[in-house]
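Lab notebook, bench 4. Still working through the backlog of constructs that have no structural model yet. Next entry is a single chain of 325 residues. Request: give me the structure tokens for it.
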Amino acid sequence: MAKKRLIQAVNEALHEEMARDPRVILFGEDVRISLFGDTRGLFDRFGPQRVRDTPISEVAMTGMAAGAAAAGYRVVCHMMFANFLYTGFDAIANQAAKLRYMTAGQIRVPVVYMAVMGAGRSSAAQHSDVPYPALMNLGGVKVIVPSTPADAKGLLKSAIRDEDPVVFLQPARRGGEQGEVPDGEHLVPLGAADVKRAGTDVTIVAIGAMVRHALRAAELLQQEGIGTEVVDPRTLFPLDQATILASVRKTGRLVVVDEARTACSAASEIAAVAAEQAFPALRAPVRRVTVPNVAIPYSPPLEKAVLPDEHSVVRAVREVMGAAR
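Model written out:
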């Protein structure tokens, strides 16, 4: 087992899956030069028939990806920034998400739309969103958000092999972080959450880059005698409700940390699931730690002010423990 950066783990997954299956093709904006590093070396190895740059037209990219997948390819469509999914949303929402249902299973759409998401780098409002709430609502697209290099590799490999459309969102602020990645074939099943830290007093469900803040908060809270369990959903749709509910029933308290805006966030869905299915176990109201309902600022101090961090997580936990201060 070797330590690798998350972006390297993604690159390794792409190399392995393209070598394993000649039907896997990759295209997107600047995939040859690989601005983020996640597609580095693929053009040199697999050539222009399987790795292609596209014009800067997300409408064309997403539609072409859905069509190629329906025709028998396994497509990886790199959208660069997750905000660009908005401009290519029609083919994702109206075609990829619905073709299998509308054709009674005759057409399958094995496509992975991948992009880098999130704030924290002063990339301004049009490059800093986490768009998974809208994607979760489609019903026909699987949505995955890894938080570690090992999960990134295993989830991406599983996504490429899946028969349905998947959106793979890389947390921007975690791309350069290192973590151990298992040697050899490594697959992480879609739809399975992971308990990153065990605890008995409160459950923190954290998504993507927020997992790091949750784990740091757990260390700080341990000094106060509060045992925190940190659950990483990894897949937001379909959501592993069983793992989350088991943790909530054990601890009796829930804090959800989500980089999406408060309204209609993934945190809102997770909180609703807990309230509907584990209400008798709850000893305190569910708390959401999210981004305010505003555009992400360009100014570094303002950007930092709207994003959750370990300190805001600690405050939320203290509130549900009845010890806010």
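Notes after review: The chain is about 35% helix and 20% strand. The chain has a mean pLDDT of 95. Flag for follow-up if needed.
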